[in-house]
Design goal:
Elements (H helix, E strand, L loop, with lengths): L20 H23 L12 H5 L1 H7 L5
Protein name: Cobalt transporter
InterPro entries: CbtB_put (IPR012667)
Keywords: Membrane, Transmembrane, Transmembrane helix
């Protein structure tokens, strides 16, 4: 009986196409804004620059503050 085997594909066809900067830039800006917002809420909220009243944000991010070295007590 004859057996069918698949031929290996060349390595050049397995390389993904580069993403154009025009498509990557909005995601990079979004990521930087999200990171800045996260650093604000973990590091600065409930201080002199507080935007949200109460202690809910502080309690939610309390362990993250200690983990990242931000003083909160």
């Amino acid at each position: 009986m004859a057996e069918a085997t698949a031929l290996p594909t060349p390595a050049a066809t397995l390389v993904p196409a580069p993403i154009p900067l025009r498509q990557l830039l909005p995601w990079a800006v979004f990521g930087l804004l999200l990171a800045a917002l996260a650093i604000y809420f973990v590091g600065a909220e409930q201080g002199a620059t507080s935007l949200i009243g109460g202690h809910w944000v502080h309690e939610f991010t309390h362990d993250g503050r200690h983990l990242l070295g931000f003083p909160c007590h």
